[in-house]
Amino acid sequence: MNHARLTALAASVVKATQRKLPPPIRPLAEAVPVHYEASPHPSVLAEGFEPDILGLFTGSAHGTELAHDQPAPPEILLYVDNLWDLAEGDAAVFREETRLTYLHELGHYLGWDEDELAARGLD
């Protein structure tokens, strides 16, 4: 599947996932831009992330925006080619992995660390 189709499919999964979020969290989730990239940029790999990373949250977590001298705007990156590779070409698996990866990265925006994400089944 090409990048445009993967991006469209991933974007539809993210929108559907957002609609199912609890009402207090939904507007927070909708305010965080989601970018769909084929794979991680070399600068991400230079930071020590693995080439097969599925997603990444960057920027300041919700509620900490003013706590930093130079806050970066929050954003979620989803690496659709990596998600597709993990799914081994299965669209249903791709949708589920995209949903889980989006929720994982959204959890980072909400300030949850890896242990809190694991406790919620988002590891």
Could you please describe the fold and organization of this structure?
The structure is a single chain. With 123 residues, the protein is mainly alpha-helical. It has a single domain (3-119), classed as Zincin-like (2-Layer Sandwich), CATH 3.30.2010. Helices cover 50% and strands 11% of the residues. It has a 3-stranded mixed β-sheet. Helix 4 (80-87) crosses helix 5 (91-109). The longest helix is centred in the C-terminal third of the chain and has 19 residues, at 91-109. The chain is globular, with a radius of gyration of 14 Å. It starts with a helix and ends with a helix.
Please indicate the percent range of residues in DSSP E strands (runs of 2 or more). 5-15%
Low-confidence stretches: none
Highest-level CATH class:
Alpha Beta
Q: Work out the helix count.
A: 6
Query: What is the H/E order?
Result: HHEHEEHHH
Share of helix among residues? Answer: 40-55%
Overall spatial form: globular
Rg computed from alpha carbons, rounded to a whole number of angstroms: 14 Å
Largest sheet: 3 strands, mixed
Determine the CATH topology.
Zincin-like
Biggest β-sheet: strands ordered side by side in the sheet: 1-3-2
Terminal CA distance: 26 Å
Structure at a glance:
By secondary structure, the chain is mostly helical. The chain has 6 helices and 3 strands, in the order ααβαββααα. The longest helix is centred in the C-terminal third of the chain and has 19 residues, at 91-109.
List keywords for this structure.
3 strands; 6 helices; Zincin-like; three-stranded mixed β-sheet; 50% helix; 123 residues; mainly alpha
